């Protein structure tokens, strides 16, 4: 039995923690919160220099080929620090989808640029008022919201494709496309988490190239989200852990009725429950990491379990952190609301608890014996 | 990451498998097996099994060789448990004696006493029990009121213990007594061992709320023990008690029952409105919540085994197991009972689904949330020992025991 990260991965985790302590301090996070900046470009540069965008990209495409376990330990630290960067969109989503569905030419074109930080990618799924339609090599329509859509150089866009051959019944099929974003009209969208950016993107006959086979969008998205769910569970784990740490620290120093509130069972039991939710998340996320790295047949179940545990634990830890901080926790000045916001943002990114509970039980239905 | 044995572990596992295949009876699916025996028959069978194991060197895997054990590692103990779980043997019948009483004897008894008692314990000849809880000392065990008073070179024990597993068939017990009520409560306790068949010791089964009778209450009326039956220092009983309970923490690898696997089966076989329960939205929502906990505990256990496997002490993650499993087991079985509708209330095993498994578990489950640390005590332990939060202010730590309010 060796169900643990290797010493090498633990080393990467430690390096990530040290780097983020300096370059993603809470002052730097608030720098993005209080400005019009889409993300912390200086921090991003630092991440690129450490090779983080290249970690999960195979060497043949200019990456470091270190695999998803290394990405998981980095994700945990990014979550803990609230780092305001487009890493999740570019690495867990755009890079992973290119790896899953890209032609060799597409991989050769995009992955080395992603690895060296020359471009930032994202995925665009949710339609605005006008659904996105692909016809004759171009996409038209509106995507809203697109996570990190202002920061990204290109997006992998899910759109309805008019099937020329079957034009008689006007059948539309659902496919992915690679689209350079420079020619599009974009505007910033306010969201629950101002430390992360989102955009409304309007495509007007914007040139697009198919990614993967026609009509494969739903299946590929499901595979992509299973992979992203594990990585995001590590961000949620980091975030929830940071909330618990903040709750404990505050409760030790805050006195009420002449005692530290940390000595009251009402507070202790609440935080013991948060600890428990976090340990369940940690174990489930670790199993997800193993299933992801090994491409195990039960990845869908492992991913859904990590995802539900992640949404539950981070939401609980963030909400109870505000509660333990009392009135102070409800001020803009205290940092509690930043986690509360980030938890909701991460819920939204690839679908929330209910969607994943259904995926989880679907997988259980075909499981002979748990 | 991998879930495989090391070469040494694989070799040990093969040896265990070979011996069990030749000497134990395999479980038959759907059959209650030896669990259906009467209490007397179970005891006799468990003693025989322990004797057979001991004769072949499997009686006490983690004990030192010199004391009749195998000198094995905690991981080997776990491998044994994993393998024997597939057999219809009452393998954990002597857990309290082997896992809790024996370590106290090893720590505090004289060499002559160790030689006299431990081999008999390891081979199932003697059954030991542990007498800590009292009617007015449960979570606050140090508030116990059973006294031991010095009488020459002897001690006289008076008082009442409760919730003692197997006291009515035990041969010996370790008993925590108050020897000095004039000092603060943790300082006035002493640990003894006692012959359970001697005069002045009266063990009576308790009828539990679920109708079962696994526990006893034990009355001490001038039960006399000699000075050499003191384990550890006089007044040092609390420390001794913690030594015993620490060994309970090491009894890892025993998965806590969650009820999930049986519920998973039910969700696929039970029909609601003409479709399997697992397709029902309400059922699905509960199932997902429970599976997250079930899988989380399973993988947490693998983290613990990883630590043991590397010869390290497991981290704080183990403290969540019972706190998660016990309330979940109660919730799942209560849910299963209501899902069965009017038939859910039937407890006759010949009429109820799964021989009334869900009903029996529903009735037994509240006890699991109390035994071995209540949910509330476990939360305090996590908060104080893992999160390092301070204890509540405690006047009972400094005031002499006989000046404390009791509510009696």
UniProtKB/TrEMBL annotation, chain A:
Belongs to the acyl-CoA dehydrogenase family. InterPro entries: AcylCo_DH-like_C, AcylCo_DH/oxidase_C, AcylCoA_DH/ox_N, AcylCoA_DH/ox_N_sf, AcylCoA_DH/oxidase_NM_dom_sf. Keywords: FAD, Flavoprotein, Oxidoreductase. It holds the Pfam family Acyl-CoA_dh_N. This is Acyl-CoA dehydrogenase family protein. It comes from Ferrimonas pelagia. Residues 223-344 form the Acyl-CoA dehydrogenase/oxidase C-terminal domain. The keyword Flavoprotein applies. Residues 6-117 form the Acyl-CoA dehydrogenase/oxidase N-terminal domain. SUPFAM superfamilies: Acyl-CoA dehydrogenase C-terminal domain-like, Acyl-CoA dehydrogenase NM domain-like. Its cofactor is FAD. Gene3D superfamilies: Acyl-CoA dehydrogenase/oxidase, N-terminal domain, Butyryl-CoA Dehydrogenase, subunit A, domain 3.
From TrEMBL, chain B:
The keyword Flavoprotein applies. Coiled coil: none annotated. Its cofactor is FAD. It holds the Pfam family Acyl-CoA_dh_N. Keywords: FAD, Flavoprotein, Oxidoreductase. Gene3D superfamilies: Acyl-CoA dehydrogenase/oxidase, N-terminal domain, Butyryl-CoA Dehydrogenase, subunit A, domain 2, Butyryl-CoA Dehydrogenase, subunit A, domain 3. Transmembrane segments: none annotated. Residues 9-125 form the Acyl-CoA dehydrogenase/oxidase N-terminal domain. It comes from the Bacteria. Residues 235-387 form the Acyl-CoA dehydrogenase/oxidase C-terminal domain. Residues 129-222 form the Acyl-CoA oxidase/dehydrogenase middle domain. PANTHER family: ACYL-COA DEHYDROGENASE (PTHR43292), ACYL-COA DEHYDROGENASE FADE34 (PTHR43292:SF4). Belongs to the acyl-CoA dehydrogenase family. This is Acyl-CoA dehydrogenase. The lineage of its organism: Bacteria, Pseudomonadati, Pseudomonadota, Gammaproteobacteria, Alteromonadales.
